[in-house]
Design goal:
The complex is a heterodimer of chains A (about 270) and B (about 290). With about 270 residues, chain A is an alpha/beta fold. Helices cover about 40% and strands about 25% of the residues of chain A. Chain A has 11 helices and 10 strands. In chain A, α5 packs across α6. The longest helix of chain A is centred in the C-terminal third of the chain and has 18 residues. With about 290 residues, chain B is of the alpha/beta class. Chain B has 2 domains: about 190 residues, Rossmann fold; about 50 residues, no CATH class. Chain B is built from 7 helices and 12 strands. In chain B, strands 1-9-8-5-4-2-3 form a 7-stranded mixed β-sheet. Chain B has a 3-stranded antiparallel β-sheet with strand order 7-6-10. In chain B, strands 11-12 form a two-stranded antiparallel ribbon. In chain B, α1 packs across α2. The chains are: A alpha/beta (about 270), B alpha/beta (about 290). Chains A and B meet through α3, α5 and α6 of A and α5 of B.
Amino acid sequence: MTAAVRVNRELAALEPLFSVNNVSKLYGPDKGCQQVSFDLYPGEVLGIVGESGSGKSTLLSLLAGRCLPDEGQISYLREDGQLLDLYASSEAQRRTLLRTEWGFVEQNPRDGLRMGVSAGANIGERLMAQGVRNYGELRGAGISWLKQVEIDPQRIDDLPRTFSGGMQQRLQIARNLVSSPRLIFMDEPTGGLDVSVQARLLDLLRGLVRELGLAVVIVTHDLAVARLLADRLLVMRNSRVVESGLTDQILDDPQHPYTQLLVSSVLQP
Amino acid sequence: MTSLHNAQQQADSGYNFAYLDEQSKRMIRRGLLKAVAIPGYQVPFAGREMPLPYGWGTGGMQLTAAILGRDDVLKVIDQGADDTTNAVSIRRFFGRTAGVATTLRTPEATVIQTRHRIPETPLSADQIMVYQVPIPEPLRFIEPSESETRTMHALGDYGVMHVKLYEDIATFGHIATSYAYPVTVDDNYVMDPSPIPKFDNPKLHMSPALMLFGAGREKRLYAVPPYTRVESLDFEDHPFEVQSWEHNCAICGSADSYLDELIVDDAGSKQFVCSDTDYCLQRRDQQLSGEGAQ
């Protein structure tokens, strides 16, 4: 048996963390997303790319259980080994998942942060929701996560609105990671940031993903971000997935005409 | 004072008993039954116009009107005192529209409508407290959407309640919330106990008296039935504490009641006196009669 075959067998023995089967949600003909299926394995980063209005964000909302699909199923393998049918479970269960084993990083940090409370409280909120009732512990977690996302721990009592855009985005990431989630959804996490800040954020994300073994679903229209972060890509257009595969393969040898257009449209500095 | 004291007034004949019509009172009573059955749950009700502005106790007055009977004795407190504008007005209102007896003395009252205090005198099982509530929703400060707060209550999604306490400790070094201090009722719903000082929170716990809360502007009512567990939220390393004073009451000498700070002259001299005027007076009377007997 060759090494490659052995690796393949081991991979096959692994169960997918998150398995999406024929999920659709349409607001109108070809508006929304339809017939999307994929499996996501632990520690894998899946990128979803496509133009504006192609259904990326709708798909992400469906994946995170924030809205219900017209049809399709999603099953999620919980930390305790049980398989959860996302849409058949109660809203209480979905909310619990979203604040424990999952995280959601919004495109605009204002949507994902509580702008009226301090950075420390933003980081501690998930822990408090999970029943941590020790101020010292919350404080410790806040300081240690600020350090990990490269924000000066002295700013723990400052309001997020006094932070720069890049810092707010990093704070949002810290706020999500504090509960040691296994699966993170990200909606254009680098959108609206200038390139040098983007680069640092991507660096940070890459490090955290590797270190913590996170599975990530990341929506982006920036192919460079996708190439840096994602192991696999789904290319969406007019509510459908038109191409999927390994990131390098898709970006270097795109098959579908739309993907070819997308790849050739990237500006070269 | 004696003109207010235990005055059984002649009711004005132009009003239905206790001002509200019978249908409205029945509607409120149905809401109250639901509220008592689900401790701490905010029941919507069709709030009626009352002849005074929102914020002056319209919610509490509607509850009082709904539960008042001809034999009831009504006491009204405003910030602990019986002789402040709000208390005098509401007491006279029910004197006129219901002709019920009113009192200033806590032990004599069967219905006590209150704004911002629970009497120091322990309550008994045959008494009902009615609270005037400005903002019934304890989650409102962090979540402006009503449908979202209702979902949060339904799912017990209360992590954000501790965010506020965390902010207090981070900013002031201790939990600085001193009134409207959130409580968990019967290990289930988180409830705003109305703007009573947190000094009064322990009096809600396992109280023999029925506690009713009415918010007129928000059109919500809720209840804590007798002998219900009511726990104030806190942190392990910053436990819930009530206010304490270095002084005793300047009038009655009480060391265990909630004190108001008064500036008594132009030089800024301070005095601390009981906020519960009836409690202070009772203690004073006892002391005087004790001295008289000697």
